[in-house]
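Sequence only, no structure available. Ideas?
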Amino acid sequence: MEGIVIWIVIVVGWAILKGAFSSVTGGNDNSSSSVEANPFTVKVKKGLPPKDTGLTVDCYNVEMTGMISHPTEDQVKIILLIQDVTDNDDENDAGAPVLSAHEAFAEKGSRVLGVERVYESSSRTYFPDWSLFVPIPVDFIVPPHKGKRRIKFLLCVGDADTTVDRGGVNDTSKLIHISKEIVNFTFKEPGYMDELVNRDKVEDLTIKLGMCMAAADGTLDQKELNIIKTWAKNLTSLLEDDKAQERNAHFSKFLKSSAIAAKTNKISLSNLVKDFNDVASKTQKYTAMQLLLDISGADGTLSKEEDVFINKIAKTTDINLSTFKEMKNKVIANVDNIDLSEKPSEESFGLTEDMDDAEKMKVLRKEYTKWNGQTNHKDPKKKKRAKEMVKIIADLRKQYSN
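Reply:
I predicted one. Tokens follow.
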């Protein structure tokens, strides 16, 4: 994923520069180059960016046209701010900041989404045609709350030394041209404020999932319980003393009651997963999956019951199964014993129901090559595990080789 993001940023940067220097025009002192005739205007179009950007992901393509003139300076700064105005009485008022899922599209030293570029300018510089300022990948936009939102794209032209902080311009007197467009945006994950509000609940639900994971093979091993206890303790390490004491006291009781409930099968897994999915963000889901994986390897054995359980949770929480597979492989490589189900879950190897046999064979070949390369590992444990995985993958390949 990191490599994909870097590639996106490089291509986007090239596209911005291309648009900037091919479209800016210096006009004469006549009506064709006046602010009145060519007001600075922003337009936002959702979809794939222009082909020459090389991007193949859905974006909000922020385009601009009109005057970016400065009366006295030879440079201007164009700034994109994105705000959530869903709850505003007046959409012209500043809204709540929108965060970026990656720092490439965030303010420096902040998670707040914002993009700024410096352009050469004059008293009559303008864009005669629509020009791409920046494409913002849709998946990188994180509003404060889940659901249907109203997102304001605010594009501002100001002095070259204009600064922004947390989604707002520090000195609005430096702004010369401003334009906005509001779009409807549906966010299916909990927003950043939801994540904050729901944090305690998500932590409790994650502990319950961990207890169910530990009890999946019919026993609650002390090593597995210690993994969960340590995880809960680490949650309070950065809290203020009063809050840490309060949360530690809660965890002490909650861990005991959850362990008893899991051991006696009094936890409805379907209800638990539903409650978890309703309030957990994508990041919190991956954190929970890592805990479950740590539990699965705590006693040195990955049982078939644990394998089935953790694959089911991965699928029902709608995380990326390829990412989960890589996370799981690290655990598999280090356990002493592996006792996968007779027919290993295809999701374990990144296979999905929408793949045809040829696609599955391609994935399995890569998996086979990766594990086969570890069959001569100097660590006896990893060498043994690699040989077992090679056999399992070879058996799976037989199913799709015809």
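The CA atoms of residues 302 and 338 lie 5 Å apart.
Hope that gets you unstuck.
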